[in-house]
Specification:
It is built from 10 helices and 20 strands. It is an alpha/beta fold and about 400 residues long. The two termini are about 40 Å apart.
């Protein structure tokens, strides 16, 4: 039974309590329910939103094969509007300077049908919400948590109205500023990139042929144009703070003009889609010192925040959900799902992939933000060299696809 309430007190006990209201939290709820666990989802009271269904969401994700396989298993992928999903068949990366290096990936060379799929946040969340409405053993509670206490046998979350939610396992899926993580006193390493991710959508004069384009510059950050269905592209510009503020204040038409120096030869003239939305969000690196605490596991941005240059933050979150549910499902019969050994197995299973993605994205951001000519020459040489090593390229792309 799937219940939802916003006013009355709750004294609910389920196997799992998931804190959060984003796509990763909803996916975790569905995955645990499918695995036979009773689930409570604690989400803040939802503010009414009036989205123009015909518009294109400026928040998009490049979902890899791991994400698609998980969403397929939950019957969510097929419930999305397929006409609004764009496959990425190629990735073209260009360096900077007088002799810019270049790197090209394509699905054929990677021995796969497609590299990734570009999915709007709204499209994904609408499908997840629909699935949750029909999910068995999922109880949705809207409210604000005030305290989290973990005992030997149970974890208890107290809400501001006096309600209590008890569970064997609490899953913190509540984002980069995770309340759950804070309640567990988990330390973290934090680095601001002094950049903002500027996002907007455009119609392009020339067909994009399913190619995602990315330009690494030193002074202006990293510009990425991702394919949307039809002759449309979605921009993610990781721009230094001052430039990002300028891009937002100038508006979408001026932003399109600025992009012409990067994209004109490949995509032709760019025209802002209606409504002309330009938004920005701060970019930072967040490394919690642990993914687990007594009867608590962190997933998604609560567990790690990486630079978006590789587009894999959401994919890491889906990987977290997959590995956490697997660790719980494969536990010994005598162990509780919140047992410290079960959670330790989850943490170990995520360590390598998360570290590799953190090191890769942080290292590339540092490398391409260095405005020294010798470094510029070396990094462009490295891009060109990597482009000529097909075996290495295939291994890198297999890791990114989630098909190791």
């Amino acid at each position: 039974m799937n219940n939802s309430s916003t006013s009355s007190r709750h004294h609910v006990q389920t196997a799992v309590c998931i804190v959060g209201d984003g796509a990763i939290a909803k996916t975790a709820a569905l995955a645990f329910a499918q695995a036979g666990q009773s689930v409570t989802v604690l989400a803040p009271p939802a503010a009414p939103q009036r989205a123009d269904e015909a518009s294109w969401d400026v928040r998009v994700f490049a979902l890899n094969h791991t994400a698609r396989k998980l969403l397929d298993s939950l019957k969510v992928w097929g419930a999305m509007d397929q006409a609004r999903i764009a496959p990425v068949d190629a990735m073209v990366v260009q360096g900077d300077g007088k002799q810019p290096g270049g790197l090209h990936f394509d699905a054929f060379g990677a021995h796969t049908d497609t590299l990734a799929w570009i999915v709007e946040d709204r499209n994904l969340n609408q499908a997840l919400d629909a699935a949750l409405r029909f999910a068995q053993n999922v109880h949705i509670v809207n409210g604000h948590a005030t305290a989290l206490k973990a005992d030997e046998d149970v974890a208890t979350i107290r809400l501001d109205d006096g309600s209590e939610l008890k569970s064997s396992l609490v899953v913190g899926a509540d984002g980069a500023q995770s309340w759950v993580r804070g309640q567990c006193d988990i330390g973290l390493d934090y680095r601001t990139y002094s950049q903002k991710g500027v996002v907007s959508n455009f119609e392009c004069e020339k067909p994009h042929h399913g190619a995602a384009h990315q330009w690494f510059t030193c002074d202006e950050g990293i510009v990425a144009l991702l394919p949307l269905p039809g002759k449309r592209v979605s921009l993610v510009w990781s721009a230094p703070d001052m430039l990002a503020d300028t891009l937002c204040s100038e508006g979408a038409a001026a932003l399109a003009e600025r992009l012409s120096k990067f994209a004109a030869d490949k995509l032709g003239k760019l025209t802002p889609l209606q409504p002309e939305l330009v938004r920005a969000f701060p970019l930072r690196l967040i490394r919690p010192h642990s993914l687990v605490a007594p009867r608590v596991a962190l997933v998604g941005d609560a567990a790690h925040v990486v630079h978006p240059l590789a587009g894999h933050g959401m994919n890491l979150g889906f990987g977290d959900v997959q590995d956490l549910v697997r660790a719980v499902s494969e536990r010994e019969q005598h162990r509780s799902i919140g047992d410290e050994r079960v959670l330790a197995r989850y943490a170990r299973s995520r360590k390598e992939e998360v570290l590799v993605m953190q090191a890769t994205t942080d290292g590339l951001e540092r490398l391409f933000s260095t405005n020294l000519e010798p470094v510029r020459v070396v990094r462009n040489f490295g891009l060109n060299l990597l482009d000529k090593l097909p075996v290495v390229k295939r291994r890198l792309i297999a890791h990114a696809l989630g098909k190791q």
